[in-house]
Design brief:
This protein has 428 residues and is an alpha/beta fold. It has 2 domains: 2-17 and 233-423, Alpha-beta prism (UDP-n-acetylglucosamine1-carboxyvinyl-transferase, Chain); 20-230, Enolpyruvate transferase domain (UDP-n-acetylglucosamine1-carboxyvinyl-transferase, Chain, Alpha-beta prism), CATH 3.65.10. The protein is built from 12 helices and 24 strands. It has a 4-stranded mixed sheet, covered by helices on one side. Strands 2-15-17-16 form a 4-stranded mixed sheet.
Amino acid sequence: MTVYIENAEVTGTIDAPASKSSMQRACAAALLAVGTSHILNAGVSNDDLAALDVITKLGATVSHQPDGSLLITSNGVKPVSAEINCGESGLGIRMFAPIAALSDKALTITGTGSLLNRPMDFFDEIFPLLNIDVQSNGGKLPIHIKGPLQPSPVEIDGSLSSQFLTGLLMAFGAGVHEPVAIKVNELKSKPYIDLTLSVMAHFGRKVTHDNYQIFYFEPQAVGYSPQTYQVEGDWSGAAFLLVAGAIAGNKLVIQGLDLNSTQADRAVLQAVQDSGANISIDNNQIILQPASLKSFVFDATDCPDLFPPLVALAAFCNGTTAIRGISRLTHKESNRAQTLQEEFGKLGVEIRLVNDDMLITGSSAVKGNTVHSRHDHRIAMACAVAGLRANGRVEVLAADAINKSYPDFFDDLQAIGAKVTIVKESKE
């Protein structure tokens, strides 16, 4: 799919998309809870659909309701298939692999696209310590596992991704029969662990921790219990709407976001404010109006998914913006630091990578050109948002990458006044 974006103001009211981080964790908790859970505001992204497919393969049944909600009925992890495919979801593979290992059935876990090239050495190192037989493809997918997982004291490296810890926390929550602890070194993205613990607590599984360094489990009569859960609005997807409003908004109103969310990407609000954007909050609605934008400094170490939208914002800020944390970008859907530098370079935006900092020189002369998503959903959305203020039409190739997280993104842009033309390739 190719998308063309032309210079235009955006205005009106728009709802934030459903959070795939919240949705996928809710699917996992519903699988682990014996009984029927009700998931409200269910997401429909590719990652969400992959999570639903995984829990179905692990024994849950999913019933789609007329209002868009889901009823998920489970009797625990009881696989009905020998192969589980997590799609292209990094959270999916890292969270569901330990959960799947609660079963004593031999399973193959794989994925698609860029996920096949992302490092999975963690499983080779940690699973044998938990009574799980594991064989990977040289530290990559597919992996072959056979449990059952036996919760034991382990020490893990949290510097690559917090998603591995999320998987262990959720799996331990269902399998603990005596006190046990997980020790974590150099944990990154702590807010994502806060979200994991929040979802677990909502489904009845309490975990305590000592400054994110040691996580403690105590036995419970019931690990998880079925619940009604409202999937949060997604700060990751809404970040692109916030930036669109900051650079091209004429009273754009964004609703459906929890201002007290534990989602790491809620930090985008501070970055947008620091850029001098005319932003106000009224009755849980975020309102953006025209303003002169200035460069800002932002540490994205704990929220690396904010790099793409913040690069689009920085491109229109006077001065040089510094965003810290590019070391977190190597193993994403693309090497995002390099991809952002190259694709925004085509739009005339200078980006320098210095140690762990990305330096973006803002300009009013962002130009139209053809860019490529590199099959990375956040690159596609960032380039599209930049097109709202570019001096000339921006053409985004492989724009259907957005389906991974925010399939309605271009429809939502059109709904608030953006000039978007979508060309879908014919299938012969």
